[in-house]
Structures are given as C-alpha cells and as structure tokens.
C-alpha cells in the first residue's frame, strides 16, 4: 500500500539524511546536473566590492582594462562571493498528486523532496522559501536561513498534505500550476534557484512562457514526480480506476491498449524533456516506488570520501 500522508516528525528527521547531494555547481561528471543538455547551476553570485591598484600576485584576469587605460596604471576589480543564495521550492500538493501504487503517494514523495531540499539548502548557509499549492489554496513562505527556514517550509507542506482527500478536484486545480509559476516569477527577482516539485498536471503553452520568464534571470531545476503506474499499465485483466465520484473499468489485459497508453505517456514525457533541454533546465525525475533520498543522491551524484579527499574537501 502506498503511504497516503506525511507526518511532521518524519520530515524533520530527514535532516540527518540530507547528505550526499547538492544543488550547487561542480557536480561529479556522472551527475545529471552536469549533463550535456543542461547547464550547470550557477551557485552563489559575486558582488562587486572595489576598484584598486594592481599588486604583484593579483590574478591578471581581474584587470579592468578600461580603468587601466583611463588612470594610466593597472587596476583590478575586486569581488566578494554573495553570502547566500535564495532557493524557492514550488511544492505541488494538488489532488492529482494524491495518487500512488507503491510505497508512497506522489504528494508524499513531493513532500519528502521538499524537506530534503530545505534541510540541505539551509545546511549550506543559504535561505530557503516555498510556494506550496493545492487545488484551491496557495501559500508563500518567504526565504529564511538556518533550521527555522527549513521548518517553516516543511510545516506548510505537511499542513496542506494532510488536507488532501479523494474528493473530486476543483475545476481550477489545473490552473494552479501556472498560478504558482507566475507568483514565483514575481518573487524570484534575480539569481535565485527555483525548484519545481510537481507532477506537471495542467501544463500548457502558458507554462512554457512562465518557465521561460523564470529562466531569464534565475536557475530552474525541475523535479517531476511520477508513479510507475503512470508509465505503463500492468497486465492484470479488468480493473476499475476511480477519480473522486467517477469510475471507469479498463481491460488491462489488452496489449494494444497498454501499448497505446505507454506510447502516449512516453510522448508526453519527451515533450517536457524537450522543453527542459531548450531552456537548459536540469531535470531530476523522482519515482514514488523508491526511497527519495537515495534517488536524489544517485541522480545528482554522490562524492565519496576518497573523491573529497583528492580535491581537498569542500561541499558535497
């Protein structure tokens, strides 16, 4: 049976499992965040501090040639790394996420991803915020650092998760994805990392426009949540599927029906993947049937102690 709901204590305990992955640059070569089609995430930015005389030993790449020509002597531009980088999680808790055939509902897997991301981001000194949305409700949690920031995000995810029911979806539920993206575009001003944790139900041309708008000045990371049953129908004979008050009986023994279903779902996923490639958006697909922390470590790439030692340590 798939776990239907999350508990606050369970997500708080994930703090100790938020290791072995990072949403920052310098991923291992096998990481999806360092793939051919997806740009490396930019990490923290640089703030301009001052223009000063060049001294022996300074990096010649920092010489400001215009200032040098104007002042008649070599000058360099000095930068400092930004102290933190805001990370905004868009966490889908609509009724379309209240589905799962193994281990956990999609809504539960999304909540686990959000908790792991929040703990990891704050452990590295960055701030984390969220836009958590259901069929009719949307709550924005402003970015905050340290444990308090992670706990605020997790508490809101749990609150909305525990309101999910099998009742029919709101007529406006599909529009909530675009509404959340529009709100994110207003909040994420420049050089944020925006993580989309959703099953992408309701995506359309407006979704593409909003994602494009977000990627103009921010990094976007897509974390699509899916269940194995959404990829292929099992050969189990006649089966009844329900959604709210509606039910339909499907003959899953039909090979042609299973093939058409699998082809349609594969075509839909490829369309989304094509959008990710065009916009250089890294994609980390998460399945409900496996441990989420383990999937993140495998997808992003885990640095072993030996690898860390070989490069003198650093962030994982």
Task: Write a brief caption for the model.
With 316 residues, the chain is an alpha/beta fold. It has nine helices and ten strands.
What does this structure look like?
The chain is of the alpha/beta class. It is built from 9 helices and 10 strands. It has helices spanning 8-13, 65-71, 106-123, 146-161, 175-187, 205-215, 255-278, 292-300, 305-310; strands at residues 46-53, 75-81, 87-92, 128-133, 138-144, 193-198, 219-226, 238-243, 246-251, 286-287. Strands 5-4-3-6-7-10 form a 6-stranded mixed sheet, with helices on both faces. A two-stranded antiparallel sheet has the order 1-2. The longest helix is centred in the C-terminal third of the chain and has 24 residues, at 255-278. Residues 26-32, 34-40 and 303-316 have low confidence and may be disordered.
Task: Label this structure with key terms.
316 residues; alpha/beta; 6-stranded mixed sheet; two-stranded antiparallel sheet; 9 helices; 35% helix; disordered C terminus
